[in-house]
Backbone:
């Protein structure tokens, strides 16, 4: 099956005249009407489930993360699977929440060699070259079409951060096109990345963060992205901001404890999840509607959209 990337360039449209302005469905209505065949399941083994300590009123706080598929970031994702299997994060904490930027979690004592929790054996040291996926020559760029790992794909002309941006298997990616072809995942809201120190350190995956503000695209290809939050982002984005440098909490009492982090295949009560196929006509209609809102509230269609302003819909699906 071909994995078509939706070309964002095709989403632009001229505003309609007042004399012939029909009713148009909102993006949420298009998603709600998408047929079952347009929804693809997410394997439980590709999910990471983080349970934070409950709120003061006892309300549970669960964050569900979908891990990136091959060929992206597999060295770090392999480490994350080992860390989760070893229950390494249990009892650690959310240590940093920086306004309009990220929420980060890991070992509060990670910078102190004498106190830091020992990492599991066998974690990979991942080279900086794996910030991108090497996919071979992009053989044709005619009419916005090109070849990606043997699949014909459609590309957008790009933005300030990438020669081309598009959707691939449900993920937003960038590419430098014909110039030494490589692709990379994009730092959109809710994406999950790997904390690191100065280069050549690329991080092990033990320190993770999620974007809770405007998309920090300048981090693309500088820090590894490994997934995205598909449920429960509010439990991280609504946390109090840290008063220390870069939003670091200054005392243990401010930190939010992590009860557990598990692979989804280990969580008995985990529902099934699905995402709207980015190859589908439903997604194409949804993306066009996000770029050109014509439903009743809007006065003028925008005529386009940033790749991060077209979040891929995810829902709880029927049980397997």
Residues:
């Amino acid at each position: 099956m071909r994995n078509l990337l939706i070309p964002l360039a095709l989403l632009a449209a001229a505003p309609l005249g007042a004399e012939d302005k029909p009713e148009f469905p909102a993006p949420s209505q298009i998603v709600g009407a998408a047929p079952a065949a347009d929804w693809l399941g997410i394997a439980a083994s590709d999910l990471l489930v983080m349970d934070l300590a409950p709120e003061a009123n006892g309300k549970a706080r669960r964050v569900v993360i979908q891990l990136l598929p091959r060929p992206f970031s597999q060295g770090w994702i392999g480490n994350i699977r080992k860390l989760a299997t070893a229950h390494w994060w249990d009892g650690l904490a959310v240590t940093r929440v920086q306004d309009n930027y990220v929420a980060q979690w890991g070992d509060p004592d990670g910078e102190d060699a004498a106190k830091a929790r020992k990492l599991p054996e066998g974690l990979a040291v991942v080279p900086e070259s794996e910030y991108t996926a090497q996919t071979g020559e992009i053989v044709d760029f005619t009419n916005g079409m090109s070849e990606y790992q043997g699949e014909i794909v459609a590309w957008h002309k790009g933005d300030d951060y990438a020669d081309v941006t598009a959707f691939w298997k449900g993920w937003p990616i960038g590419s430098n096109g014909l110039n030494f072809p490589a692709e990379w995942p994009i730092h959109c809201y809710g994406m999950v990345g790997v904390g690191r120190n100065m280069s050549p350190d690329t991080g092990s995956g033990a320190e993770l963060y999620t974007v809770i503000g405007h998309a920090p695209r300048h981090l693309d290809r500088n820090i590894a992205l490994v997934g995205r939050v598909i449920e429960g982002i509010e439990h991280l984005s609504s946390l109090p901001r840290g008063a220390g440098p870069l939003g670091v909490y200054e005392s243990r009492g401010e930190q939010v404890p992590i009860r557990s982090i598990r692979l989804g295949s280990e969580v008995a009560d985990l529902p099934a999840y699905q995402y709207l196929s980015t190859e589908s006509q439903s997604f194409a209609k949804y993306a066009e509607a996000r770029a050109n809102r014509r439903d009743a509230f809007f006065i003028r269609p925008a005529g386009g959209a940033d790749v991060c302003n077209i979040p891929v819909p995810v829902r709880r699906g029927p049980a397997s």
Observations:
- The first strand starts at residue 39 and ends at 42.
- The helical segments are 27-33, 74-85, 234-237, 281-291.
